[in-house]
Model the fold of this input.
Amino acid sequence: MSRDLVVALSGGIGGAKLALGLSHVVAPEDLLIVANTGDDFEHLGLSVSPDIDTLTYTLAGLDNQVLGWGRRDETWSFMETLESLGGPTWFRLGDRDLALHVERTRRLRGGETLSAITADVARRWGVGPRIVPMSDDAVRTRVLSDGGWIDFQDYFVGQQCRPVVRELAFAGAEAAVAHPDVLAALASPGLKAVVICPSNPFISVEPILAVPGIRAAIAGCGVPVIAISPIIGGKAVKGPTAKMMGELGLEVSAAGVAARYGSLISHYMLDHEDAGAVVAQRACQAPTLMRTLQDKIALARAVLAAVA
Done:
C-alpha cells in the first residue's frame, strides 16, 4: 500500500498557516489535521473553539489577515452594543464570527458532537482536508501563575499573557477519549508522516498529547514525526512561546523546543537563522517564517521532502 496520509497536529495561527501550505501539496483526502481544543471555553453562554475556528477560516479562505484571527470583512455592531450595555468585551466576537458560535452552541445542546459540527461547517465552506478535534470530550488548559490557577483565555486574552507561568494543567484530559479517527489515522498502514506544526508546544500541542492514547500512538506509528520550530533566533514568531519557556526554566531557543519534544519526534525543522542549533533529532533547515501563501507552500514542501 502506498503511503500518502499526513497527520498534522495544530494549534491556531501558526499551525493554520502550515496546514494551509500542506493543503496545497497533499491531496485533501490524505490530510487530517488534529485540532487543539484546550483553548475552548464558554463565553456569553456560547461555546467557542478558537483553534478549530482559525483552522477552518484559514483553510476556507475566510481568515482575517489584518488582525491575524477571526473572520475577514468583519463588523463589530454586536460588541459595540454589548459595550453600551456594560457587558464584558474583553474577548471580542465579530458579527460574522458570532454566527458560528451561536450555531455550534445550538447544535451541541441538541446532542451533536463537536467533531460532527466541525466537519459539517468545513464541508459547507469548501474545506477539503479533515479538521478533527483531538477529542469530543472537554479538555481545558489552566495556567498556574503567582496569583493562583486561572483559565487559559483569562491568561491569554483577558490578561494579555502578563502573569508569570509556573505550571500548566489540562483539566479533563485524563478522562477524555481521543477521537477515534485520529487514532485510526495514526495506526493506518497508509500513514506517511506526522507533522507537528509550528504552534506553541505548551498550550497548543501538549494538550493534544495529554489525551490518553495520542502520544503513544504517535510514538508507535512507525513513520517519521517532524516538528517545525515556532522559535526563530530566540524569539517566538507570534504569541507567548518564548516568554513561557523562560518562565518554565527552559532554554529559549529552537533547540529548547526540540528538547521539549524529545524522542517523540524523529525530525526537526529549523529556520536558517538557527542553523547552528544542536538537536538530538535529525535536523532540517528551511525558511520557516510564513508571510505569504508561497512561503506556506514552500515550507510544506520542505517538510515533506525532509521526511520522504
Notes: The radius of gyration is 19 Å. The mean pLDDT is 95. Residues 255 and 279 are 6 Å apart (CA to CA).
